[in-house]
Amino acid sequence: MSTISVLMVEPSKRPSIISIENDLSTFENIVNGPLDMQPFFRSPYKIVCNVDNGYELTYGKRKPKDSFFIVKHDGDFRSIDRSEAEEVRDHLKEKMKKWK
Description:
The chain has 100 residues and is of the alpha+beta class. The protein has three helices and six strands. Strands 1, 2, 3, 4, 5 and 6 form a six-stranded antiparallel β-sheet that branches.
């Protein structure tokens, strides 16, 4: 099985780059349930989150209660490299300032 690098966002922790298995069951374990995928920042970045949190992460202002991650997706899941992660992290910081 292959691994991909993602920007992991966990409650009460700083976003960090980690490697995870590139499979559905790993994704569901991370987000604590069924998946939702929302656009983030600009193409091809996507938020992979719990289906109950997708709308709030994209359009709401509530702090997420579950972990989620940001990855590149254009039909297949692909790794984020360090420079891309920095750019995504900067955009995420601005978004997180609006969360309550």
